[in-house]
Automatic annotation (TrEMBL), chain A:
Pfam families: BPD_transp_1. The keyword Transmembrane helix applies. InterPro entries: MetI-like, MetI-like_sf, UgpAE/MalFG_permease. One of its GO terms (cellular component) is plasma membrane. This is Sugar ABC transporter permease. It is found in: Cell membrane.
From TrEMBL, chain B:
Belongs to the binding-protein-dependent transport system permease family. InterPro entries: MetI-like (IPR000515), MetI-like_sf (IPR035906). This is Carbohydrate ABC transporter permease. Residues 78-267 form the ABC transmembrane type-1 domain. The chain crosses the membrane at residues 12-37, 82-106, 113-134, 146-167, 188-210, 248-267. It is found in: Cell membrane. It is a multi-pass membrane protein. CDD domains: TM_PBP2. The keyword Ubl conjugation does not apply. The keyword Transmembrane applies. Keywords: Cell membrane, Membrane, Transmembrane, Transmembrane helix, Transport. It comes from Sphaerochaeta halotolerans. One of its GO terms (cellular component) is plasma membrane. Gene3D superfamilies: MetI-like.
C-alpha cells in the first residue's frame, strides 16, 4: 500500500482536518437554513404539515409585526448613532496620556460587557423601578424632571431604557475595537500635523476619523447585526412577559413568541427569513457603499 | 506657556469626564454588591434607591441562601454552568484549531470555498436558526440535555478564523522540519503546532468560556428541568418576585458575576486579544 492512499497522506489529510467544520456546517447551519426556508411556506401542526405558499408572509402584514419591525429598526439606528461616536471619542482620549491610568478606565468601561444579560437586566429593572424613590427617579426629581414609569410608561421610555442598557454593556467593547484601530495609525502623521500647527479637533477630523474607516465599518456592521437580532435585553427587562403595548417587542421577540409560545412554526420561520434578508442586505450594501469589497479596502 | 496651560486644562477636563463616567458605569455592579448583603425582598417595594447605595446595614448571612434556598439548587446551576463551560470550551478549542490548521496549511481543492464559508457564517445570527435547530434537537432527542446545549456550538466559525490567522503566522520551516523527521500530518499538528499555540488558545479559551457562561437564548430553549438549568436560565426563573425568589436572585446574580470579573482582572490581555486579533486593524 502506497503512502498516498492512507489517511495520513498530504492529499487526504486536509479533508480530515476540515471534516468537523463540514459536518457542523451541514447539520447546524445548512440544514436549519433550508428547513427555515421550507417551513416559511408551510403551516406546521404537530405531526402534520401543509404547504400554504406565501400565506405566512402575507400574514406578516399585521400590527404586531410592524411594531416589532419598527422597534428593532429604531433600536438599531439609535445604537449605531450612540455606540460609534461615544466610544470613538473615548478611545481617542484613552489613547493618550498616562498608560496605567488609561488602562483602569478602559477596564472599568469594559467590565459591564462581562455581565450576563440576565444579571444586567435585573439590575436595570431595579435601578429603573417605577417608584418615586428608585435610583433613577430620585435623580430625575433632583434635576427637575418628572419621575417616570420606565418599564411601563410607553415606547419612548422603553427605548431610552434599552439604549441605556446597550450603552452600559457595549461602550467598553467598542472602545477596545477603536483603540486597536488607533494603535495602527502611525505616530508620524500626528507629529507632522503638530509641525503644521494643527489643532486637536483638526487632527481628529483630518487624521483619526478617516484612518479609522475600516474599524468604523466593522463596528457598524456588528451593530446592525446586534441591533436587529436584539431580543434578550427586552426579554429580561420585562421578565419574560409581553411588554405593555409591545413597547419592547423586537423581530426576534416576535419570532420567539410565534414559534415557541404560540407554536406557529411556519409564521416564525417566515419572520426568521425576513430578518435574515434585512440583516444581509443592510450589511452587504453598507459594506459595498464603503468599498469594503474592493481589494484595496480589505486588509 | 499658555499652550501648556491649555493642554493641562484639557487633560483635566478629560479626566473629570472619564472619572464621572467610570463611576456611573460602576453604579449597577456596586448596587448589586450592596443589595446582596441585604434581604432581597427589600427591593420589591422601591427597587434600588439612592439610600441603598450607602454601605450600611450589611449582613453576610444572606449568602447562606446560596445553598439553603430551595435545597441549594443554586449550587446545581453553578455546577452545570461550570461543566458546560469546560466541555464546550475544550471541545471547541480542539475542533476549531484542528479545522483552522487544515485551512491554513494545505492548498487543497475547495479551500477557498470553505474559507469564505467560515467568514460568511460568522455573519449569520444564531437567532434565525434557533427554531429549526430546536426541531432538530427534538428529532434527535437532545432536548433537555447538555449535549443539546453545546453540540451546535463546538465548531465555532469565529474561533476557526482566529486560529487560522494565528497558524498562518507559524513559520513553514518548522512544519517542513517535522516532515523531514518523518512525522505524519496529524503528528505535525499535535506535536509541532499545538505546543506553540497556547497564547491563541488562552485568548480563545477565555473568550469562549465567557460566552458559554453567559449564554442565554439557546440554553433557555433547550433546557427544561430545573436541575439541568445553567446559571442564567436558573436566575431568569427567579425574576417573578414571589417567595424568597429575590433573595436568591440577588446573591445568585452576584455569585455568577464575580468569578468572570476576577478572571478578567487577572487575564485582561487575553480578553482583549480574543476580541481584536480576529479581525480588523485600522
Amino acid at each position: 500500500m502506497t503512502r498516498k492512499q492512507t489517511l495520513g497522506s498530504a492529499k487526504i489529510a486536509p479533508y480530515v482536518f476540515i471534516l468537523p467544520f463540514i459536518a457542523s456546517f451541514l447539520i447546524f447551519y445548512l440544514y436549519p437554513i433550508i428547513s427555515t426556508v421550507i417551513m416559511g411556506f408551510q403551516q406546521v401542526y404537530p405531526g402534520q404539515v401543509e404547504f400554504i405558499g406565501l400565506e405566512n408572509y402575507r400574514k406578516l402584514d399585521n400590527p404586531e409585526f410592524k411594531v416589532a419591525l419598527k422597534n428593532s429598526f429604531r433600536y438599531t439606528v439609535y445604537t449605531i448613532a450612540l455606540l460609534i461616536p461615544i466610544p470613538l471619542l473615548l478611545s481617542v482620549w484613552l489613547n493618550s496620556g498616562n498608560r496605567a491610568i488609561n488602562t483602569v478606565y478602559r477596564s472599568v468601561l469594559y467590565i459591564p460587557s462581562l455581565v450576563s444579560i440576565v444579571v444586567a437586566g435585573t439590575i436595570m429593572r431595579l435601578l429603573f423601578a417605577s417608584s418615586d424613590k428608585s435610583f433613577i427617579n430620585t435623580l430625575a426629581i433632583a434635576v427637575g424632571v418628572e419621575p417616570r414609569q420606565w418599564l411601563l410608561g410607553g415606547s419612548h421610555q422603553a427605548m431610552i431604557l434599552l439604549l441605556i442598557l446597550a450603552l452600559w454593556r457595549w461602550v467598553g467593547v467598542n472602545i477596545i475595537y477603536f483603540l486597536s484601530g488607533l494603535q495602527a495609525i502611525p505616530d508620524e502623521l500626528y507629529e507632522a500635523a503638530d509641525i503644521d500647527g494643527a489643532s486637536p479637533s483638526q487632527k481628529l477630523w483630518r487624521i483619526t476619523i478617516p484612518l479609522l474607516k475600516n474599524t468604523t465599518i466593522f463596528v457598524t456592521t456588528i451593530s446592525i447585526f446586534g441591533g436587529f437580532a436584539m431580543f434578550e435585553e427586552s426579554f429580561i427587562l420585562w421578565a419574560g412577559k409581553p411588554s405593555p403595548n409591545n413597547v419592547g417587542l423586537t423581530i426576534v421577540g416576535h419570532l420567539y413568541n410565534k414559534g415557541f409560545q404560540e407554536g406557529e412554526m411556519g409564521m416564525a420561520s417566515a419572520i426568521g427569513i425576513v430578518l435574515l434578508i434585512i440583516v444581509f442586505s443592510l450589511s452587504i450594501s453598507f459594506l459595498k457603499l464603503f468599498g469594503f469589497f474592493e481589494a484595496e479596502g480589505r486588509r | 506657556m499658555a499652550r501648556i496651560l491649555h493642554h493641562s486644562r484639557r487633560a483635566f477636563v478629560k479626566y473629570i469626564i472619564l472619572t464621572l463616567l467610570a463611576l456611573l458605569y460602576l453604579v449597577p455592579l456596586y448596587a448589586l454588591t450592596l443589595a446582596a448583603f441585604r434581604p432581597g425582598r427589600d427591593l420589591l417595594r422601591y427597587g434600588i434607591t439612592l439610600k441603598t447605595l450607602i454601605p450600611t446595614d450589611l449582613h453576610i448571612s444572606t449568602f447562606k441562601g446560596l445553598y439553603t434556598i430551595r435545597d441549594g439548587i443554586y449550587i446545581t446551576w453553578f455546577g452545570n454552568s461550570l461543566l458546560l463551560m469546560l466541555l464546550q470550551t475544550s471541545l471547541a478549542l480542539f475542533l476549531s484549531s484542528f479545522v483552522a490548521y487544515g485551512l491554513s496549511l494545505y492548498h487543497f481543492k475547495g479551500r477557498k470555498v470553505v474559507t469564505t464559508l467560515v467568514i460568511f457564517l460568522m455573519l449569520v445570527p444564531i437567532q434565525i436558526l434557533i427554531l429549526p435547530l430546536y426541531k432538530l434537537m427534538i428529532t434527535v432527542k437532545l432536548i433537555d440535555t447538555f449535549w443539546g446545549v453545546f453540540l451546535p456550538m463546538i465548531v465555532s466559525p469565529f474561533a476557526i478564523f482566529f486560529f487560522k490567522q494565528y497558524i498562518d503566522g507559524v513559520p513553514r520551516d518548522l512544519i517542513d522540519a517535522g516532515r523531514v523527521d518523518g512525522l505524519n500530518e496529524y503528528a505535525i499538528f499535535f506535536r509541532i503546532v499545538v505546543p506553540i499555540m497556547p497564547p491563541a488558545f488562552s485568548a480563545m479559551a477565555i473568550f469562549m468560556s465567557m460566552q458559554s457562561w453567559n449564554n442565554f437564548l439557546w440554553p433557555l430553549i433547550v433546557l427544561r428541568t430545573g436541575e439541568k438549568f445553567t446559571l442564567p436560565i436558573g436566575l431568569n426563573t427567579l425574576l417573578t418576585p414571589y417567595g424568597n425568589n429575590y433573595d436568591l436572585l440577588i446573591i445568585g446574580a452576584l455569585a455568577a458575576t464575580l468569578p468572570i470579573i476576577i478572571v478578567f482582572i487577572f487575564f485582561q490581555r487575553y480578553f482583549i486579544a480574543g476580541l481584536t486579533s480576529g479581525g480588523v486593524k485600522g
